[in-house]
UniProtKB/TrEMBL annotation, chain B:
Species name: Candidatus Terrybacteria bacterium RIFCSPHIGHO2_01_FULL_48_17
Function, as annotated: The branched-chain alpha-keto dehydrogenase complex catalyzes the overall conversion of alpha-keto acids to acyl-CoA and CO(2). It contains multiple copies of three enzymatic components: branched-chain alpha-keto acid decarboxylase (E1), lipoamide acyltransferase (E2) and lipoamide dehydrogenase (E3).
Name the UniProt record assigns to this protein: 2-oxoisovalerate dehydrogenase subunit alpha
Phylogenetic classification of the source organism: Bacteria, Candidatus Terryibacteriota
GO molecular function: branched-chain 2-oxo acid dehydrogenase activity
Catalysis: reaction(s): N(6)-[(R)-lipoyl]-L-lysyl-[protein] + 3-methyl-2-oxobutanoate + H(+) = N(6)-[(R)-S(8)-2-methylpropanoyldihydrolipoyl]-L-lysyl-[protein] + CO2
Length: 332, 334
């Protein structure tokens, strides 16, 4: 059956909860309402209000209690309603969850997932549009995962829930309900997993490598359709931002000699900087470069502005990606 | 409700032994810091007896969530002076962290002592989450979490009491109020005198006690643990204690506390109060105390020597335990 990304998230939660009674789901409005995006729709009815429950409007306690629950033998899957509101929990995530295994020399672990919708293009303004991935991708001890479509959402979320370490699972909300075939994929109704830590070449090509994650892949794919007759483009979905599968990126860039990284986070210290560094530091890849690495990102403003005109100026899109690919392909 | 007198005396005698041991251990660590054998120590002097009494009501399957002044609590829950010394010397065999954490950051998975950080009040939410999990899993276990008065200014304190109140979780929150967050006085931290009053705002029971009231502490701790065990919800116990030493070995409290205040502080040492309590009842006398001091001193010396001579962590292990190795056990008690 074909599913939206949101339906796939919902089904992954439901199937995992049915498989393992230690899994609990909680957050603001996840109970009877089923979440503001309906990702947990019907779960409380099916699994009861001890396994699916509303929490106080207090993000630090959502994550802090999740850490305790994980220490106490449950597998918590906490929802932060919007990634923009995760910041009060930064301390619990970074100082506590990420360090627990290391600081206890491996005697305590925190198997938990924090799911949160993130990203712009939804008229959400500065506080409902943020890209927060690099705050957490920077931190050893955490895993950071971003799906691009319904198929990867379901498999990656199942893997995140079964992972023994804390995973930040970022859901690109702009494409939650998208019905384009690139996102609205055929999804097996049974549970399945996709490995964390693997990037995927989603389109093979010879001239340029485009590296992205989340909602930007759809834009990248549209751009390559526009340029299909002109430039042969390889697209890589990173899928997991920590740990990074650098090998897949390096192999591709060695082949094409040209690399474009696209993200809707701003550029400075963004994830593209890490990709550029990985490419530059690897002698075989560096020497195979035929052009400087290009990053396409949001401008250096605090977050996505609300006005449609301003938001469009903020977001990378297929049109901007086409221009960046052309510039890169014809650089000499 | 209360213990029989004989049981109470047995308990308090045991806590006196552990508390005196904790005091001598703490004093020895200061000496070792001054001798350059380690860079840092956080002191629990003045806090030992309430910690010991309250922790003594925990079963081995119950959970202790300590903070950095919890030396006596972790000793009462089963850690040894050798464990504390291995931690101080940051040796490979340090059960708290394998030499990864600063001294006084205790943890021991087997003894259900949860690893803590230096960040204030984060552990309260962990205690609440553990209690939530154990209750859902049907275990009859309780959680005791310790923290200072400064921690009650943090949002996590309020969020923890709120969550525990909503779900009536089996948590005993213990605030060791020594009147200071490093150098910041209670008056500068809050507009109230009695921290236990904060419990009411979260629909939970709160009680404020003096650290020298050893019978009162035992009575309230027993009551709080019983309430937790019987599903009647959390309790906030505030114990007012002196901070006899500076905040840490990097602090000099004479800079912000007068000689007069410090000499008055020494008069309300719960350890001295417990000793008087046991002497009056004939449980402790000069002879028993001399023998106990000797036993503690020789035990400490052995612990120190063993720890100091044990190997430091292998630098090659620096990258281990960031993530669980594939195929190994998740290692969480459940």
């Amino acid at each position: 059956m074909q599913q939206t990304l949101l339906e796939a998230v919902h089904d992954a939660l439901e199937l995992e909860m049915a498989r393992d009674t230690r899994i609990v789901v909680f957050g603001e409005d996840v109970g009877k309402k089923g979440g503001v995006f309906l990702a947990t729709h019907g779960l409380q009815e099916r699994f009861g209000n001890t396994r699916v429950f509303n929490t106080p409007l207090a993000e630090s306690s959502i994550v802090g209690c999740a850490i305790g629950m994980a220490l106490g033998g449950l597998i918590p899957v906490a929802e932060i309603q919007f990634a923009d509101f995760i910041h009060p929990a930064f301390n619990q995530i970074v100082s506590e969850a990420a360090r627990m295994r290391y600081r206890s020399n491996g005697t305590f672990g925190v198997p938990m997932v924090i799911r949160t919708p993130y990203g712009g293009g939804v008229h959400g303004g500065l506080h409902h549009s943020q890209s927060i991935e690099v705050f957490y991708a920077h931190v050893p001890g955490l895993k950071v995962v971003v799906p691009r479509d319904s198929y990867t959402a379901k498999g990656l979320l199942a893997s995140a829930i079964r992972d023994p370490d804390p995973v930040i699972f970022l859901e690109p909300k702009k494409i939650y309900r998208a019905k384009d075939p690139f996102i609205y994929k055929e999804v097996c109704k049974d549970a399945y997993t996709l490995p964390l830590g693997n990037a995927e070449v989603i389109q093979e090509g010879a001239d340029v490598t485009v590296i992205a994650y989340g909602a930007m892949l759809f834009e990248c794919w549209k751009a390559t359709q526009t340029l299909a007759k002109e430039i042969s483009i390889e697209i890589i979905d990173l899928q997991t931002l920590r740990p990074l599968d650098a090998t897949t990126v390096l192999q591709s860039v060695q082949k094409t000699g040209r690399a474009l990284v696209v993200h809707e986070d701003n550029m400075f210290c963004g994830y593209g900087a890490e990709i550029a560094a990985e490419i530059s530091e690897d002698p075989d890849t560096f020497t195979s470069l035929a052009a400087p690495i290009v990053r396409l990102a949001a401008p250096e403003v605090p977050a996505a502005p609300y006005s449609k005109a301003l938001e469009e100026a903020f977001m990378p899109n297929a049109e901007k990606i086409v221009r960046a690919i052309k510039e890169l392909a014809y650089w000499k | 409700m209360s213990e029989k007198d004989a049981d109470l005396l047995t308990r308090l005698e045991r806590i006196f032994r552990i508390s005196l041991g904790a005091r001598r251990l703490d004093e020895r660590l200061w000496v070792l810091v001054r001798a350059g054998k380690g860079p840092f120590i956080i002191s629990g002097q003045g806090h030992e007896v309430p910690q010991g009494i309250i922790t003594s009501f925990l079963q081995p399957t119950d959970w202790l969530v300590p903070y950095y002044r919890s030396t006596c609590a972790v000793l009462t829950k089963g850690m040894t002076p050798t464990d504390v010394m291995l931690h101080f010397f940051a040796r490979a065999g340090d059960p708290s962290s394998g030499g990864r954490q600063m001294p006084s950051h205790f943890g021991d998975a087997e003894k259900r002592i949860v690893s803590g950080s230096s960040v204030i009040a984060t552990q309260l939410l962990h205690a609440v989450g553990i209690a939530h999990a154990r209750t859902l899993l049907g275990a009859q276990e309780i959680v005791v979490v310790f923290f200072g008065d400064g921690a009650t200014s943090e949002g996590d304190f309020h969020e923890a009491l709120n969550w525990a109140g909503i779900h009536k979780l089996p948590v005993v929150f213990v605030c060791e109020n020594n009147g200071y967050a490093i150098s910041v006085t209670q008056r500068e931290q809050m507009a109230i005198r009695n921290i236990a009053n904060r419990a009411r705002g979260y629909g939970i029971y709160g009680v404020s006690l003096d650290g020298t009231d050893v019978e009162g502490i035992a009575h309230e701790a027993q009551k709080a643990c019983k309430r937790a065990r019987e599903g009647e919800g959390p309790t906030l116990i505030e114990v007012r204690v002196p901070r006899l030493a500076a905040h840490s070995s990097d602090d000099d409290q004479r800079k912000y506390r007068s000689d007069h205040e410090l000499s008055k502080e020494a008069l309300r040492d719960p350890l001295a109060a417990l000793e008087r309590f046991l002497r009056v009842r004939g449980i402790v006398n000069d002879a028993t105390e001399a023998a106990l001091e000797q036993e503690i001193a020789s035990g400490l010396l052995a612990a120190e020597q063993e720890a100091e001579q044990s190997p430091t962590p292998d630098p090659a292990t620096i990258g281990e335990n960031v993530y669980l190795k594939e195929g190994s056990d998740a290692a969480n008690a459940s």
